[in-house]
Amino acid sequence: MQNALAKEQQVPIFINLMSQVQPETIFILEKIELHIGLKKAGIPTEEIQAKHYHKELQVFEVSITSIFPSDKLRQLAARELAFTKKQTVLENEKLKAFSGIAILTEIQVYKNEKIGLNQSGLTTPIFIKDIPNNLKGSITIETQYKISAEPKLEYKITEH
Predict the structure, then answer these.
(1) How many other C-beta atoms can be found within 10 angstroms of the C-beta atom of residue 116?
(2) What's the rounded mean pLDDT across residues 90-118?
(3) How confident is the model at residue 24 (pLDDT cuts 50, 70, 90)?
(4) In degrees rounded to 5, what are phi and psi of residue 35?
(5) What are the φ/ψ torsions at residue 84 (nearest 5 degrees)?
(6) How far is Cα 91 from Cα 89, in angstroms, rounded to an integer?
(7) This prediction's pTM
């Protein structure tokens, strides 16, 4: 598995396993979440810590509760269902305290055992855009997780 669920077949494997078990089955990893996040401005790269990031919107989740409903699971197993597109709007006023936009990964291993942001290579943020100093409007990020030969969270960024 890679950070941001990129390149490896973690999601299809999870879906395949889920199609073969009962809803009360315990999975370890229990949940993987992807968020759009912001990196605080003025922090040198070598000093950055989890506290220097701000989560904005959860854009994708892999867990029994998010995927197990029987209709959704059947459609995913048959490769008929596309994951929901999400739209995150970041307003100019909010962005002034931040210097970059990233995809943040958090993992709930089992119950209260978690791999938090930047605690592992699996949860290292992926920077997707610097925030321009002269930004006048907002930034919109459209995201959708796609299963393919190289699965990933696809995104499109638009400045307004």
Answers:
(1) 12
(2) 94
(3) confident
(4) -125, 155
(5) -65, 135
(6) 6
(7) 0.88
How many angstroms separate the first and last alpha carbons of the chain? 35
Residues with Cβ < 8 Å from 63, sequence gap 6 or more? 27, 30, 31, 32, 108
d(CA 111, CA 144): 27
Distances (CA, A) of 156 to 96, 104, 135, 145: 21, 16, 17, 12
Which helix (DSSP H) or strand (DSSP E) does residue 137 occupy?
Answer: none
The Cα 105–Cα 36 span in angstroms is 9
Residue owning tokens 């854009």: 59
Domain residue limits, the chain: 3-159
Beta pairing class for 113-115 and 98-110 = antiparallel
Please give the Cα distance from 39 to 124 (Å, whole number).
12
- Whether 157 contacts 137, CB under 8 Å: no
Hey, what amino acid is at 99? S
Handedness of CA 60, 65, 71, 74 (dihedral sign): positive
